[in-house]
Structures are given as C-alpha cells and as structure tokens.
Amino acid sequence: MTDPIRAILEAMPEQHQGDREAIGRAYQFAEAAHGNEKRKSGEPYITHPAAIAKTLAAVGMDRDTIIAGILHDTIEDTATTADDIEKEFGKTVRFLVEGVTKLSKLKYRGLDRHFESLRRLLVATAADIRVIIIKLADRLHNMETISFVEPESKRIRIAKETMEVYAPIAERLGVTTFKRPLEDLAFQILQPGDYQDAEQAINVQRSEMEDALDAALRDVKKDLAKAGIRNFSTERRIKGVYSFWKKLAEKDGHIEKIYDLFALRIIVPTIEDCYRVLGVVQHAYRPVPGRVRDYIASPKPNGYKSLHTAVITGRGVTIEIQILTADMHHENQFGAASHYTYKEQTPRGAASGLWLRKVVPRLMKSKTGQTPKWLKDLGTAIEHAEHQTLEEALKEDFFAERMFVFTPKGDVIDLPVGATPVDLAYAVHSVLGDTMAGARVNGKMVAIDSELKNGDKVEVVTKKGARPNKKWLEFVKTTGAKKHIRSALKT
Ligand code: MN
Questions:
Q1: Which of 37, 76, 144, 235 is labelled catalytic?
Q2: Picking from 89-98, 106-115, 153-162, 415-424, which range would have the lowest pLDDT averaged per residue?
Q3: How many angstroms does the Cα of residue 118 sit away from the middle of ligand 1?
C-alpha cells in the first residue's frame, strides 16, 4: 500500500470492511488515468485528488464520497468515461463524479450575474449534497495551493469566486469545516493588508486569552464536578481571521466588544445536561448581561445549535462559553452533510433530495429577512413537492422562468424559458447576433427559432455579411435581443 492511500485511510474516523480495498483501487485507477499530468506546482496531478480524498475522509464523509473525490477530475481531464467509473465503482460514484464535472464546466464571466447563476446552478445541479461537499474540498485544496497560479489577476478571480460563492454556500449548508478556511484563504488574497492587521490583532490577544481560557477551564471542571457533572469534554475555538475582521468592522473597531474571539466549548451527552451546565457556569461567573443565546431552542438559519454565554472570568477577562451535545457539535461542523458521514448513516434510498427537504426550509427562515431570490425559488419548489418527487418539482418550478444553456467554451448563459438560439447569440454579444446565420444545439444544426432547453450546448454559426431578419422579432424572448435587432434593422 502506498503512503498516500494509507494517509487517506488513516484520516477516516472509522473504516468498514471493503473500504481499504475500494479506496486503494480508486487511487490506483486515478493515478493511472492522470498519468504524467502535473499540477501547477510541478507535483504529479494525483497529489490533488489525494489531498481532497484525505480532507473528505477527515471530515468523516462516506466511502463513495471519498472515492468520488479521488476520481473527481478523471472524466474532465483524462480519457476515463462515466461508464468506466460505473463499471469499477458503481452508480453512486458515477453520479457524484458526473455532478462535480458538470459544476466544473462553469466559467467565470466577470459579472455579478455570474455569481448568481453559479450559486443557482450549484444548488440546482447538485441534487445530492455530496457533490457540493466534493466541490468545496476541491476548492479548498485549490485555494491552499493558489500561490502557484499565475498571473495575479487569476488568483484574485479565484479568490473572489471563493469568497462570494463557495464560502457562502458552505455557510448556508452549515458546513463550517470548509467555510472558515475558504474565507480566510480568500481574504488573504483579496485584502492582504487587512488580513495582516486582523491576524496581528488576534495574536496580540492570544497569549492573554489562552491563559484566561486555561484558568477558566480548570475552574469549570471543578464547578461541574461539584454539581455532579463528570461526563463532558472541552475544546477551545478561536474565531477565523475573516470572521473576526468583519465583526471588528461591525463594532467600529472596538475589539473589547467582541466577546467570542476565543471561546470555550463544553460538550455533554444530553440537552438536559446543556442547560444544567449553563446554570453552573452562570452561577460561577459574572455573565455579561444580555449575552445568553439559546440556539438550541431557536437554531440559527443554517441549523447551528448550541447555548452561548459570555462570562467575565476571575481575571476580569471576558470569554464566551458554548455548551452543546456531541450530536449538535457534529451537525454544526458538517451541517447538511452530516447525514452522509460515518457518524450518521441514513438509508441510501431516502438520501437523494433529503438534504433539500431538510435544509432549504431552514435556510428560508433567515432572520434578516433578506432571503436571496434563488433560495426563495428553491423553497417554492419544495413546497410544491408533495405530489411528485422533489427532483421533479425542483426542475419544474425552479426553472419555470429561467434556464441555463452553455456556450461551446462552457460559459453558462441564463435565459428565460422559451428562448431561442437568437436570444443566446445576443446575450453573448450583439455582433454575434447581428452576423448570425445558423445554430448548432448539442452538435446538431437546428432552426434559429427553435426553443432551447435547460442544459443545451449552443453554438452560434456566423457568416460574413449576414443580417438580422425582421421575422426574428416574432420569436425572440429577451428584450436585449429585440432591442439589438430593431437597431440593426434601422441601419
Ligand atoms: Mn480538482
């Protein structure tokens, strides 16, 4: 067994029979497929999927997800086909790898709209959350190795996409394991000066806070023992650099008003224990008034559950104490993905679409009232899902008004339903529309007034001297196309 395979297996919290064999086989399959391909760093390409598989293993994802992580770039970058993957590793792995491949086909278009499209597509195409988890792990490794990417403008583009699309998705889905490192890595590239300042401010506080946490931990252990609570574990948590920086801005730079920079987490077996521990802690320390938060009774929109309280310790230092059960802790870290981890296996049949049913309604309850439109659309789709499968409802309602088609280069264009190749041409560029002579959809020539379907790959055929026709106005759906056709007809 080679070391990378061992590293993946060792990262798994728990292995089942057959995992070793299948994961080892997947690694060798991917290694052979990628052959002499290299990363920008000069390392063999296989180091990238191996790193992703290790991350997926470490967060406890199931075997199929780990295998799909190892194979995630094989369809796109090598001669491997989806059929090959299914034959070797089964239908689920095929589905996951194809999902990731589809997501990679999206290209950045440098517009705000792009982010909206990408977000919508991420959610809509990934009917199985494991696709998004693999994509997040993929993005995390690409961010970790981004220094090899040239030129700088490309690094900034990737970091921006990470900050505006991937980190919010990780947050929305409650996968904090990925959210924080994605944000911090992107922040470092987008605002290097602010990153340095924030990191330094945290470090200044660190030594004092660590002493305070140590002292608090000793006291808490004693107090809990006195109250007869012995079955608990603790950990410290330091806020992420970006999240700290954002909060600092909210508090107008008053670092002393940030109570949760350093927190002590107390993990207990039952919900009842949580409230008992809270009672002990509130009694032993001076609580900061108005700083108790019961996220068990009312979880955060992304599902986060815990009791929070800020207390002033014996040394006069304020720390946050978070009290939660082991199950909550697990769900807080992995969010919607927790159902696919070893800890919480669900029957496979119920799996597809389950996360949407469970998570999306929860996301809709955003307290800020600023539910983005794409989420509302999703929510509507789910409400109407009773009489059909969720996937059907999602496809119907979610795409009731808009659809996405691809250009030959893989750009995704967002169009109203019923749009034609002419609409697509003008959506890309007016010159493309003005010189259009025909269209190929999914490789076949079609009439230019034919209706496009979601997911179509559309190629516009141009001819020198071609001109828009007045008849086009009768079938185009977008106002942009109408406007350009009219102005072209005038000249
Ligand atoms: Mn990749």
A1: 76
A2: 106-115
A3: 17
Q: Which residues contact 370 (CB under 8 A, 6 or more apart)?
A: none
CB 392 within 8 A of CB 410: no
CA distance 43 to 36: 10
pTM of the model: 0.67
Is the omega angle on the peptide bond into residue 299 within 30 degrees of 0, that is, cis? no
Report which residue type is found at 369: G
Quick check: is 31 catalytic? no
- Angle, helices 112-125 vs 129-144, to 10°: value is 130
Is the Cα torsion angle 202, 203, 205, 207 positive or negative in sign? Answer: positive
Half-sphere exposure of 413 (CA within 13 A, CB side): 26
pLDDT digits (tens, 9 = 90+) for 368-418: 334 444 444 444 444 443 333 333 433 333 334 667 777 787 666 778 788
Q: Who's near 464: CB < 8 A, 6+ residues apart?
A: 435
Residue 83 known to be catalytic: no
List, in order, residues 6 or more apart from 405 with CB less than 8 Å away: 412, 413, 415, 419, 424, 452, 453, 454, 455, 456, 457, 458
Q: How far does residue 455's CA lie from ligand 1's centre (Å)? A: 22
Q: Which residues contact 369 (CB under 8 A, 6 or more apart)?
A: none
Of 391, 348, 420, which Cα lies nearest the Cα of 93? 348
Find all residues with CB under 8 Å of 290, minimum gap 6, and list them: none
Question: Phi and psi at residue 283, in whole multiples of 5°?
Answer: -75, -40
* Alpha-carbon span 214 to 20, nearest angstrom: 40
pLDDT per position as a tens digit, 18-65: 888 999 999 999 999 999 999 988 999 999 999 999 999 887 788 999
Question: Residue 137 C-alpha to ligand 1 middle, in angstroms?
Answer: 9
CA of 80 to the centre of ligand 1 (A): 15
Three-state DSSP class for residue 311: strand
357, containing H or E segment:
helix 354-364
> What b/e sequence results for 438-447 when a residue is b if at least 16 CB atoms lie within 10 Å of its CB, and e otherwise?
ebebeeeebe
Report which residue type is found at 436: M
In the block, tokens 């950990």 appear at: 235
Selection from 46, 23, 47 nearest residue 35 by Cα: 46
Q: Residue 124, CB half-sphere, CA atoms under 13 Å: how many? A: 26
